[in-house]
Design brief:
Protein Transport Mog1p, Chain A, alpha+beta, disordered N terminus, 8 strands, two-stranded antiparallel ribbon, single chain
Length: 157
């Protein structure tokens, strides 16, 4: 895998609270979910991750998207969707890209109109988490997902 240039990014608890309080729309748009097609070794890591994922994230109950797969998971009404084994995002080559570190897991941040998308960096496979608009200024859901990612998807450094 191509390495991602490490750029330190720290977000204080006060900044997270301020961003979360900034306000945003609570409309969820159901998106079609494409199941990734990673190589067998990465798919094995994704299956291990799938077994460790929590029943709820950010207060949202588990509600896996269709089609059912061990490479995807969801919480709420498409509010939080995880896909494991996705291709390396092009934005990782952009020196201006932004990232966050949550509980020992580094994530690339991509702002989108539908809500933010985060993709792990420095891991043996890429794990993508898309959040609905209501999470436009909130990385809180990543705190529930960082532990399982750290446990099952080894660092690539």
């Amino acid at each position: 895998m191509t390495s991602y240039r490490r750029r330190p990014f720290c977000l204080s608890a006060a900044a997270v609270v301020l961003l979360a309080a900034a306000g945003c729309s609570s409309t969820d748009a159901a998106a079609s979910i494409t199941v990734p097609s990673p190589p067998p070794e990465e798919a094995s890591l994704c299956r291990a991750l799938h077994k460790e994922l929590p029943d709820s994230v950010a207060g949202q109950d588990r509600n896996d998207p269709e089609p059912a797969s061990e490479l995807t998971a969801g919480w709420g009404d498409a509010a939080i969707v995880l896909r494991c084994g996705v291709p390396r995002p092009e934005k990782m080559s952009d020196p201006q890209s932004k990232g966050v570190e949550v509980n020992g897991v580094n994530w690339l941040l991509e702002q989108r109109e539908a809500g933010p998308r985060f993709t792990t960096t420095y891991r043996k496979t890429y794990v993508e988490v898309t959040l609905g608009k209501q999470y436009a200024h909130d990385i809180g859901p990543l705190t529930d997902l960082a532990g399982p990612v750290k446990k099952t998807v080894p660092a690539s450094l």
